[in-house]
Write a structure and sequence with these properties.
two-stranded antiparallel sheet; 65 residues; 0% helix
């Protein structure tokens, strides 16, 4: 019921965006709206995405400059 929680290592001064897909052959769709990127925090980033809706997704975290 809590959805998916992504975790990754902090990169100082960098922002990130999250992408997902239910089929790797179809490419990824950006979950984080453009302009709403978040600044990386210390020591580990954690972001909750998607409530448990029965669909399985693959995720990737894009580190932005």
């Amino acid at each position: 019921p809590q959805g998916v929680q992504l975790k990754w290592t902090h990169i100082p001064g960098r922002k990130f965006a999250i992408w997902r897909t239910s089929n790797l052959a179809n490419g990824f769709t950006r979950v984080t709206p453009v302009g709403m990127e978040k600044l990386s925090t210390e020591p580990e980033n954690s972001e909750r995405v998607d409530e448990d809706g029965g669909i399985q997704y693959f995720y990737k975290v894009e580190i932005l400059e």
